[in-house]
Design a protein that fits this description.
It comes from Microvirga aerophila. This protein is α+β, with helices and mostly antiparallel strands. The protein has three domains: 2-107, Butyryl-Coa Dehydrogenase, subunit A, domain 1, CATH 1.10.540.10; 109-216, Butyryl-CoA Dehydrogenase, subunit A, domain 2, CATH 2.40.110; 234-363, Butyryl-CoA Dehydrogenase, subunit A, domain 3 (Up-down Bundle), CATH 1.20.140. Helices cover 51% and strands 16% of the residues. The protein contains 13 helices and ten strands. Helix 1 runs parallel beside helix 4 (51-64) and helix 10 runs antiparallel to helix 13 (353-363). The longest helix has 29 residues, at 266-294. Bound molecules: flavin-adenine dinucleotide (FAD). Flavin-adenine dinucleotide binds at residues 76, 109-113, 118-119, 143-145, 191, 345, 348-349, 351-352, 354-355, 358.
């Protein structure tokens, strides 16, 4: 896996990062390799492997592929669209969409965030009104990953504001649906090869058969999707951290100052040890949660802790890698600054670090 990733997915990364360009060829290659369909049963075009195997493969992908944006796009597609579709979709919906999602022919994601609702996701304003055999959606979504290149999105909207979170439903919205408009592309500081956009729903028509799950079940569906996402989305970051650690050890051994390798200075050695400790903590959290999921256990707490541990450790690992590489680490060519920019996003998407702490503290009984 990591050999495929390093050979096939890294070409022209600097240029694509600068231009904010999605690697559609890489996307297709990953799909052909089977990545997009890892957790999807073979019946629907996937590989049907268990969560522990899935995160192991994604970790290798992150080790070999330096294009964190491409990997992020694949993750958004898997955890926010394929998994809820698999869990809550009708047989017809699964047969219609999953094979093309696994083959990479369709690109997807989800649209929950809005200009006025982020962490407080269930205060969304987008409405869905049933009219005969369709729903009419109205509202504005933002921060939609894969939005500019999407073919299919899960859009969350309320059918009854008076019911609060229990009025939220979710819909499979195809790009060509009347009234669905992809707005401006949002330029990000990191993960620049993963495109993001605003989405506008202007009397957007969605057939009733494209409602995902029952009416009012959007909160459950989103929670389910987020639990998977928080458990698995940063598996690739563990591979990235391993790569950053190895590069840092090599550099610390090779680079000489004051007549010796900088790795012999205890202050540098201790940074390397901290990187290793953080990597081990991240990997242990990842594997434990995936193992529990493979056993069918509920992992609300573990998912929040996994997301929190890996994202925070990834950022610090990238920071240490830059510091160990000195001036070279700060130069764009070295690619460590890109790793840092990419890592910072992980503290925000799928619920911020603060939100993970709030979830975890409440699940711990506070
Ligand atoms: C790279 C990236 C990809 C994304 N992809 C998607 C996507 O595909 N689909 C989608 O719907 N959304 C997506 N998002 C949006 C993401 O889910 C939101 O950015 C996130 O939920 C935070 O919401 P917000 O940005 O509105 O920040 P806010 O909720 O406004 O938070 C601002 C700050 O306040 C803090 N805060 C908020 N509430 C509390 C609280 N109760 N206690 C303590 N602190 C609090 C936050 O932690 C944060 O530090 C993406 C974001 C990023 C960065």
């Amino acid at each position: 896996m990591s050999r495929f990733a390093s050979r096939e997915l890294n070409d022209y990364l600097r240029e694509r990062d600068k231009l904010g360009e999605f690697n559609r060829v890489g996307w297709k290659k990953c799909a052909e390799f089977g990545i997009h369909g890892l957790p999807v049963p073979k019946d629907y075009g996937g590989l049907g492997v268990d969560p522990l195997t899935t995160v192991g493969v994604l970790e290798s992908l992150g080790y070999g592929c330096r294009d964190n944006g491409l990997v992020f796009s694949i993750n958004a597609h898997m955890w926010t669209l394929e998994i809820p579709l698999l869990e809550f979709g009708t047989e017809e919906q699964k047969r219609k969409y999953l094979p093309s999602l696994c083959s990479g022919e369709l690109v997807g994601g989800n649209a929950m965030s809005e200009p006025a609702s982020g962490s407080d996701a269930y205060s969304l304003q987008t409405t869905a009104e049933r009219r005969g055999d369709r729903y009419i959606l109205n509202g504005t979504k933002t921060f939609a990953s894969n939005g500019p290149v999407c073919d299919l999105m899960i859009v969350y909207a309320t059918v009854d504001r008076s019911k609060g979170p229990n009025g939220i439903s979710s819909f499979l919205v195809e790009r060509q649906s009347p009234g669905f408009k992809v707005g401006r592309e949002l330029e990000k500081m990191g993960l620049r090869t993963s495109p993001m956009a605003e989405l506008f729903l202007e009397d957007c028509e969605v057939p009733v058969e494209n409602r995902l799950g029952r009416e009012g079940n959007g909160k459950n569906l989103f929670t389910h999707s987020m639990t998977w996402e928080r458990s698995c989305i940063l598996a690739s970051a563990v591979g990235t951290m391993q790569r950053l650690l190895e590069l840092s050890i090599r550099y610390a051994n090779d680079r000489k100052q004051f007549g010796q390798s900088i790795g012999k200075f205890q202050l540098i050695g201790s940074k390397i040890v901290d990187m290793k400790l953080r990597l081990d903590e991240a990997r242990a959290a990842l594997y434990r949660t995936a193992w529990l999921q493979s056993k069918g256990k509920s992992v609300f707490l573990e998912a929040a802790l996994t997301k929190l541990a890996i994202s925070e450790n990834w950022v610090r690992c990238a920071e240490d890698a830059i510091q160990i590489h000195g001036g070279y680490g700060y130069i764009v060519d070295s690619e460590f600054e890109r790793e840092m920019r990419d890592a910072l996003g992980s503290r925000i998407y799928s619920g911020t670090s603060e939100v993970q702490r709030i979830i975890a503290s409440s699940l711990l009984g506070l």
